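Try this one yourself first.
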């Protein structure tokens, strides 16, 4: 079955997911995410099991999910094209501590912190179902960074 006929037409918003557990923090660019419930509101992000962010997220109680503007490609390249195994991705970005110790990126379009309700095995990705507990963002929205804007970024930690 050639799913490219279907998924090749999708152009989802990209987001940066950050996780913190103990002294560890990590973040990655994510293309698989969606609201998954209306009442109560729930959101799911899918993290690659090959990614350092997944390793930290397994131990975390909350995750922060950030939407990037189309002109924030440099942030997408940092979080998508570099691996946290070799790079401190947070060294040159403005962050603050959010609910539950979450790492919140300050210069993004919109963000939320979600309490992890459950983890769902999806193959080479695991879904983290989140209960939003804190939100923020810019008053004047910009166009969001989409997959087609970031498709030339080579993964910093390619699936093995």
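Now uncover the answer:
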């Amino acid at each position: 079955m050639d799913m490219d006929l279907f998924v090749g037409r999708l152009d989802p918003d990209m987001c940066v997911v950050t996780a913190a557990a103990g002294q560890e923090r990590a973040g990655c660019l994510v293309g698989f995410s969606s609201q998954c419930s209306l009442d109560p509101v729930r959101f799911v992000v899918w993290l690659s099991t090959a990614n350092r962010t997944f390793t930290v997220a397994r131990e975390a109680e909350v995750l922060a999910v950030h939407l990037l503007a189309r002109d924030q490609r440099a942030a997408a390249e940092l979080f998508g094209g570099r691996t946290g195994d070799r790079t401190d991705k947070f060294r040159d970005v403005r962050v603050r501590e959010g609910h539950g110790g979450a790492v919140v990126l300050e210069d993004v379009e919109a963000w939320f912190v979600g309490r992890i309700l459950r983890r769902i095995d999806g193959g080479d990705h695991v879904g983290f179902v989140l209960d939003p507990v804190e939100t923020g963002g810019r008053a004047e929205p910009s166009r969001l960074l989409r997959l087609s804007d970031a498709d030339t970024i080579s993964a910093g930690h390619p699936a093995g």
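Discussion: Helices lie at 4-7, 52-59, 73-81, 147-150. The beta strands are 15-21, 24-30, 33-38, 41-48, 62-67, 95-97, 103-105, 110-121, 125-137.
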